[in-house]
Each structure stands twice: as structure tokens, then as C-alpha cells.
Amino acid sequence: MTERFSGLQLRSTLDQSGTLTLDLAWTTLSSPGPDEVVVQVEATPINPSDLAVLLGSATGPVNLDDLQPVGSEKWPTIVAKVPATALPSMRDRIGVPITPGAEGAGVVVCAGTHAQHLLGRRVAMRGGGMYAQYRMVNIRDCVALPDGTSAADGASMFINPLTALGFLETLKAERHEGIVHLAAASNLGRMLNRICLADSIPLVNVVRKAEQARILRDAGARYVLDSSDQHFEEGLVEALYETKATLAFDPIGGGAQASQVLAAMETAASRDVKGYNRYGTDVFKQLYIYGTLDLAPTVLDRWVGFAWSIGGWLLTHRLRQLGPDGEAKLLKRVSRELTTTFASQYTAALGLRNVLQPDAIRAYGRKATGGKYLITPQG
Amino acid sequence: MTERFSGLQLRSTLDQSGTLTLDLAWTTLSSPGPDEVVVQVEATPINPSDLAVLLGSATGPVNLDDLQPVGSEKWPTIVAKVPATALPSMRDRIGVPITPGAEGAGVVVCAGTHAQHLLGRRVAMRGGGMYAQYRMVNIRDCVALPDGTSAADGASMFINPLTALGFLETLKAERHEGIVHLAAASNLGRMLNRICLADSIPLVNVVRKAEQARILRDAGARYVLDSSDQHFEEGLVEALYETKATLAFDPIGGGAQASQVLAAMETAASRDVKGYNRYGTDVFKQLYIYGTLDLAPTVLDRWVGFAWSIGGWLLTHRLRQLGPDGEAKLLKRVSRELTTTFASQYTAALGLRNVLQPDAIRAYGRKATGGKYLITPQG
Asked: From CA A300, how far away is CA B309, in angstroms rounded?
């Protein structure tokens, strides 16, 4: 085990003045410990949560129209300014190079004494720092992929699949009968649609464009509401009345749509109630914000009674509640249905150096629905 | 049991066109059933929740500057317009006279066969329709007051005391270590302060004026923050850091203060955390909105991570969770400490006819902190 692996690693570093630098470092890994493996990274996705790290933070990303390329072709480097208002919340990352990339897939090229069974296998892995040519991981953070699985198919095995399955665990634990999903044509949304169809769980998909609605309907979705449609609100109430869905997941965060959904739930719930109750119905309505696609304030501008809640939903917290066994059970299902229920689609694949091109950053930085990018670090 | 009791009853009636009529009706009660008593109402408070019924709804009260007196001295009547935007949420009360008054105290003047032990006793009671000279109630909705208790002392035995104690039950059930209370100089807030002092529960009181802060400090409150103070936010973070209070109760609803409190909790929670976590701390922060003093939208405009929740808090729902035994236990304490911990203070007492004077409506309709009115229907 004398071989040492060296390769490129993408870094995002913020300084005191609010300048964010994206560059590549040449790093050499130490020898793996007994429970560790070295993985040659073949594919790693750019998730919205990765973008938040790469480009500043969820609340203070750099201005995509003001990216300065200052490096060479071989060593591309981008500098950009983080808004001053966002700096205080990022003080703990000032001066600390962050290595983005929450998950990925690759081949085990070196394995510790307890991990020899993985040598030569293709694995899916997680833990940050995946935007690199080589990554050392503990075996508890990787899963051997079924034979014949491509790296692209294995690259997004954790975040989206566990999030979608996590939604269903929340549904069960908090005793709701159906789900509303906003920005539902995303990779995650299409995955959730497939799971809910398979498990017969009522799902109300809310999208913002007719073409997104079509994608979901073509995939068999029964309830698809387009918020750009003039009859959106009536349609939403009708779907909520039919499905009794009282649990919503919202990756957008900003704006008034969360409030609109809760109000529609209340209208649906009150339809069969006789008489006047000045406090609203006692049907409990829950909306979870699990992303921040829109950084504008969340505005609650409708009367929804008193039986409601809006809160944050974070995969890490939910997995902790499930415990290792609960999580292992979910991952088993993901592994079994990796190319069907849990398949991801990518707009394009980018080599590590391409990730640092201004045009590419603007493309993946837009976080457009359906626009998901894969990094292939060996390319 | 041939005696029939007749008297005045205040009514609030909305018609199709959005006209709200407040008037008095002469009503005659039937004979009480076996488990019922007739109470001569001596005192009944105007709670914020009563105001919502009296003047329209929580979201669509009438304009206080446009009250038309149309009755006589003996039969005062007020008409006013409910905003058209608020009408849809009130459709179920159109054409139905509502009789406000959630709680009160008085003397039992007639009792059913199973209720003879209450005859001649002064009782506290609840159930709506208390703005009347006589009220029939089931014995399960009334509590005999300790000998020597005045009607004014017994009039507010349910809503505020059970709400304040309900906050503590929520604290225990949801495992928080301290409470933040907004608009904390209200009758309810001063009561909560006394309970928390007695039970050694950390309480952070937030008020909007220096004089309100003084009232609470004079009552022994340790943490009092005045939001009009220029160092309010730092002070709040400091108090939250010391108390570890992660549960807030907000009777205001509208505006950005809910968001400000959650953000201050997150800042306090992150103070001792090392390193950068882009998702915020995992300290769970809860704010409950239990009133709608401000009808403006609730605006969540700060980054508070993902471990947070904002929701409605309604006494009725919480009492249902506690069950009859749990509630009885709380009421026992209230009865024991009625003139100390659970004492209420009133700005003025109004006869039933005075309640329908435009000047009086404007005074009690303002919902100013500390301005609480008592109705004495026999006066």
C-alpha cells in the first residue's frame, strides 16, 4: 500500500473582504485507514445544496453576472463578490477553503485492511468534497453499486432519493394522508411522483409552467397544477379536497406560495364543515421548506386559522430521527430501484475545469427546474 | 321551577351586503335541564378573541372610525361595514346572530335537579354568549368560586389563565427550556410572568414601550426587552443565550418580529458552535402565533437555518390534547391562585348599553396593551 493518489480538487474560499475564490488544488491523499477506501471519482452531481456552498451560501450567493476569470486554462480561477449583507452569516467560513460536492460515484482504487472486499468495485458515496479526482471515504459512507451500474446512475444515490423517501417517512410519522409538492418537475419531484405512484400515496404536484405539467402528466401523475394557469387556485383546492393532502414540501421558500397552499388546504378542509368557526377548522396543515430556490422573504398573507405550521425540513435531521437501521432500509430500496424509481437525468456533464468557466457557472447556477448538471472529474 | 328569567343579550349580526349590526335583544330563558343552571351574569371581560366576534372576524373587523349609531338610548344599535375582502371567510356567519362573550362570572339563580348544590353560589363559566344579563350553562362549563371571590375576580378564570398555563404545558411536551413572550405586558403576559417566576421557568419578555418594560420589571421579571430600544436585538440575543429559550409565543402575528425572534434564537444557539455549518444549527426553534393583534402579513425575512417552525396555537386544540383530567388540574390551580397569580386588571367597567356606544367601541376596539374592559351586564 505504498501508492499515493494525487489529483485535482475544487475549492471555494471566502476572504474577509467578501471575495469568493473558486479554484482547483492539486492534492495528494494519505494511505487509507483500516475502514477507509480511496475512490477515483467518476461522476458527482451539482445539487442545489452544493451550489449554496460553491457560490457562497444559501442566503448570499455571488452575483452570476459578475464572475471574474483570473486563472489560466490549466488552472482556471474565478473570483466574485459575496453581498456584504450576507457576510455575517458566513463568518465561520472566512479563510477556510470549502470543498464542495455532497455525493458521487466512482471506483475503489485502494482499500484499507477492513475494506478489501470493495477494491475494484464501483461505489456510491457521500460526505462532501466530491468535486475531486480522488476522494478518501469511510466505508460507512459508501455503498457498493449493483454490478453493471454506471457511474452516472450511481452518482445521485443519496440526496434526492433519501429526501423523497424522507418525505414519505414524515407523512407516516406525522399522520397525513397525502402530499403537496412545489416545484414538482425537478429531478426530486419526478422521483417523488414515481414513488407515490408505486406506493399509492396521493400527491399533488404544483409546477410553474405548462411544459413542466406535461412532463409530470406523461409520467403518470394524477394531480398536476400549473400556478401560471388562471384557474390555479380553484384547481388546487379541488385536488386538496379530493386527496385530503395536508402536508406540503416547498423547495422555494420565498414568496407567498407557501401561504397560498396552506390557505387552499384550509378552504378544502372547511368545505364539509357546517356552521361558523371563527378560529378556522381543526384540520392540521403542515408545510415544510426544504430549500431556498427563492431568497425573497416568505410572506404569510392569508388567513388559515390556527391549525397550521411552517417549518424547515433538513435531510440530516430526519435521518438522525430514523436512525441507522431506518436509513439502511431506505438505501436498500434506492439501490434496488436505482435505474427506475430513483433515476436522475442530467442536462450535461462537465469536467472539473469546465465547472470553473463563467458560462457554465451561469448555466448551472440558475437552478432552473430540470437543469441538473453532472461533474465528471476525470474528464 | 316556574320562574323564567328574561334579560338583555348583546348580538352581532352580519348580512349579505357586509353590514354588521350590533344590538341588544330581550331574551327569555327556558327552564334549566337537570344538569343546567341559570346564572345572573355580573361580570364578563372583553378578550381580544371576543372582539374578533363582536366586530366581524379576526381578519376583517369593521372600521372603528365608521360606526353608525342608529338606535335609541334604551335600544342602542350600531351598524358598520365589514371590508369586502374579508367577507368570504365570514360567509358562515351571514344572517346568523352571534352572541359574543366567551367567559364570565355571576350568581346561580336557578338550578336543575342535579345542580341544586350550586344554587345561590357565585360561579365562573364559559361557552360564549356571556354578554347578557342571564345565561344558562351546563354545570360542566362552570366552576363554583371560592367564598368571598368577587365577580370581577372570577370573570376571567378560563381564557387567560388556561392560555398561560397551556404555554407551560407546551414547553414541557415539546421539551424547551425557556419561553419568549411577545407583547408581554398584556394581562396574559403579566400572568405568565407571575407563573414563570413561581415555577422557575426562564421567561424573556418582549414589549414595545419603556413603560411596559417598567411594569414587568416592577413585577419581578428578569428579562425584559423593549423593541423600541436601539440595542434591542443584541439584548434579545443575550437573553436567549442565557436562558436557552427556544419557544416563543406571539399574539401579534403580523410583521417581521416572529422572524426576528427566530433569527435571534439561531444567533444565540450558534454562539458556542465551532466551524461552519451551511444549514445552520440543529437547535430546534419554535414560534407559535396565538393571536392576530396585527392583521398585516407575517414576513419571514431572516435566515434561521432549517431547524425551525412557526405555527398557530389555539387553546381549544391544546386543551383537547390535555384531556379533561389535565384541564381540571390546571383549573384547580387557577381557582387556588385566582386573586394572586391569575389576577386580571381592568381599565373600566361598562354596562351592556355602554358597550354599544361608538366612543366605547373605539376604546376597547384598539386592543391596546393593558387596556382591558369588563362588562357588568346588570349595570
From this structure: 13
CATH of A160-317 given 2.60.40.10, 3.40.50.720, 3.40.50.620, 3.30.565.10: 3.40.50.720
Residue B370 predicted with pLDDT over 70: no
Residues of A with CB under 8 A from a CB of B: 49, 52-53, 57-59, 89-90, 92-93, 96, 98, 256, 259, 275-279, 282, 289-290, 297-301, 303-314, 316-317
**Contact criterion met (CB < 8 Å) for A306 and B290:** yes
CA–chain centroid gap for A193, Å, is 16
Who contacts A336 (Cβ-Cβ below 8 Å, separation ≥6)? Answer: none
Q: Please state the rounded mean pLDDT for residues A368-376.
A: 81
Q: Taking CB atoms and an 8 Å limit, are A311 and B308 in contact across chains? A: yes
For the segment B31-60, the average pLDDT, to the nearest whole number, is 90
Rounded to a whole number, what is the distance in Å from the CA of A133 to chain B's nearest CA? 24
Q: Give per-residue pLDDT as tens, A144-183.
A: 999 999 999 999 999 999 999 999 999 999 999 999 999 9
**Interface contact B301-A304, CB threshold 8 A:** no
Of the listed ranges A77-91, A315-329, B305-319, the one predicted with least confidence? A77-91
What pLDDT sits at residue B2?
A: 57
Region A126-132: what's the mean pLDDT? 96
For range A64-69, the mean pLDDT: 91
Task: Kindly tell me the burial class for residue B67, based on how many C-beta atoms sit within 10 Å of its own C-beta (0-12, 13-18, 19 or more).
Answer: buried
Task: Say how far apart CA A39 and CA A136 lie, in whole Å.
Answer: 6
Q: How many CB pairs under 8 A join A and B?
A: 99
What is the pLDDT, as a whole number, of residue A368? 63
Task: Residue count of chain A, please give it.
Answer: 379
| Cα Rg of chain B, angstroms | 22
Record: contact B282-A317, CB cut-off 8 A:
yes
Amino acid identity for residue A255 in this structure: G
**Grid cell 448538471 in the structure block, residue:** A373
> Nine-digit cell at B190?
403579566
DSSP 8-state assignment for residue A271:
T
- The residue ranges of every structural domain in chain A are 5-156+344-375, 160-317
Please say whether the structural domain A5-156+344-375 has been given the CATH code 3.90.950.20: no
A206 or B92, which is more confident: A206
Which among A266, A279, A213, A216 has a CA at the least distance from the CA of A237?
Answer: A266
B263-270: Cβ within 8 A, 24+ apart: B263/B302, B263/B303, B263/B304, B264/B233, B264/B236, B264/B237, B264/B240, B265/B180, B265/B240, B265/B304, B266/B303, B266/B304, B266/B305, B266/B308, B267/B237, B267/B240, B268/B237, B268/B238, B268/B240, B268/B241, B268/B244
A166 burial level (CB within 10 Å; 0-12, 13-18, 19+): buried
How many secondary structure helices (H) and strands (E) does chain A include? Answer: 10, 19
The answer to whether A155 and A45 have CB atoms below 8 angstroms apart is: yes
Closest-CA distance, B189 to chain A, in angstroms, reads 20
d(CA A138, CA A112): 10
| pLDDT in the model for residue B32 | 95
Nearest chain B residue to A54 by CA distance is B278
* Predicted confidence (pLDDT) per residue in A194-244, tens digit: 999 999 999 999 999 999 999 999 999 999 999 999 999 999 999 999 999
Residues of chain B neighbouring A89 (CB-CB closer than 8 A): 303
Averaged pLDDT, B1-23:
90
Phi, psi of B25 (to 5 degrees): -120, 150
Strand partners, B285: B308
* DSSP at B187: H
| Residue A347 CB neighbours (<10 A) | 14
Q: ipTM, 2 decimals?
A: 0.88
DSSP state of A180: E
Of B306, B311, B314, the CB nearest to A312: B306
